[in-house]
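Problem: given the chain below (245 residues), write out its structure.
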Amino acid sequence: MIQDILAKIGLTEGEIQVYLALVELGQTSTGKITEKAKIASSKVYEVLQRLMNKGLVSYVVKNGVKYYDATPPERLSDFLEEKKDSLTDAQKEIEKILPELKSKRKGAQEVNRTVVYTGGEGPKIALREALEAGKKKEELLGFGSDEDPFLVHYPYELEKHFREQKKYKVKWKMLFCGEFQSPNPLAEIRYLPKGFTTPTRTFIYGNKVAIMDFHKPFTTIIIENKDVAESYRKHFYFLWEIAKE
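Solution.
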């Protein structure tokens, strides 16, 4: 439990082991730290230095020997606040350079791209991209599984999407089978007979098609190609016409 939380705030496995060893041992030498933390002696100084940089470890010198100790546990909260401040500052800096980066991107030759994501980030990226496209009044289309994997795996991201969707009046058209009840408050939904949709979830937005497979490990394929997107769009509307409200 403690180790999991420390990992979430950004400590490496080695840093966690050394920090917890110092919490239990108190002020001590590197020999006892390596024994307690089960870390190689060649690595312990590097790890201790990183922890000192984070303000989580301090030291004193006695008779020419350094003795290390964990700083008070409250320092973890300070460390997290500093990380948040640093991220906020970094976000502001990113916002400053976005126009220049976008300008450079426009000058580059446009190419058709296919990106494959393995793991949990892919569906979140597809959802964010679709929302940004919707804010630009791009048409958003979706179809697929009769369950809502976003509701199961990404409730926070989905709730945030709905808030932004309502704020910017972003609308979806979606196709499902049976009597699936979508949690999307602004989606126009039609229903197809069983077997017409796939076990994957598909988004169509702008010149992109995102195909998400929620069987573990999650796989997301995002295709950026005008002709492919248009082909998927035509197929969607073919099904839309035969679907029931």
